[in-house]
Amino acid sequence: MKFGGVSVKDGEAILHSANLVKKFANDNEVVVVVSAMSGVTDALINAAKRCSSEASAGFIKLFVADMMKRHYEAVEKAVQSEDIKNRVINALEKLFDELEKVLLGITYLGELTKRSEDYIVSFGERLVAPIFSASLLSLGVDSVALTGCDAGILTDRNYGKAKPLPGIYELIRNRIEPLLKIKKTVPVVTGFIGCAEDGSITTLGRGGSDYTATILASALNADEVWLWKEVNGIMTCDPKFVPNAKFIPQISYQEAMELSHFGAKILHPLALIPVMRKNIPVRIKNVFNPDFEGTVICAGTKETKDVVKALSLIPKAGIVSISGAGFDFAEIMTEVFRILSEEKVGVIMVAQSSSELSLSIVVDLKDLEKAYQALKKMENGVIRVNKIENVSVISAVGAGMAGTPGVAGKIFSALGRNGINVMMISQSCSEYNISFVVKSEDGINAVRIIHDEFGLNN
Ligand code: ASP
Ligand code: MG
Question: Is the beta carbon of 152 within 6 A of some atom in ligand 1?
Answer without folding.
Answer: no
